[in-house]
Design goal:
17% helix; 4-stranded mixed β-sheet; 137 residues; alpha+beta; Immunoglobulin-like
Length: 137
């Protein structure tokens, strides 16, 4: 009886952690970057590619908040993806593909912390949020 109870508790805990991880996937992805005051840096890029490396459509990327101490520039351009070796799209890493890039530039003379929140809606109907925390030196 004790062994059965331990098994039930273990299974409940595993299901709880799995559910938490899945629920956590809607949380924003956070990146940290460092910039020199007044100089533009790249903070984000994304591309949607088919397995044959052709474009699957451009994302809609918009700043939803920030930056408080600078500006952001979002442009369509060539990006170089970074698919893992076990991905069927790994070969796409060798070529520039149509995508979206975001750049941050602090106000001249500003030093400290800044932050940008981005909303990304993909051509395939998925959405996610990205937060970029920038340390300006």
């Amino acid at each position: 009886m004790t062994r059965r109870m331990a098994c039930i508790i273990t299974m409940t805990a595993m299901v709880g952690f799995t559910g938490y991880a899945m629920a956590g996937s809607s949380r924003p992805i956070t990146y940290e970057k460092t910039a020199l005051s007044g100089q533009e840096i790249y903070i984000f890029e994304d591309a949607n590619l088919n397995p044959d490396c052709t474009s699957a459509g451009l994302d809609d990327v918009q700043a939803t908040s920030g930056p408080s101490h600078g500006s952001i520039r979002i442009v369509d351009g060539k990006v170089y993806p970074n698919f893992p070796k076990d991905s069927e799209r790994y070969k796409c890493n060798l070529q520039g593909d149509d995508g979206v890039q975001a750049f941050y530039k602090s106000a001249p003379g500003f030093k400290g912390q800044d932050q940008v929140s981005l909303s990304i809606h993909t051509f395939s109907g998925n959405a996610r949020s990205v937060v970029v925390k920038v340390t300006v030196e």
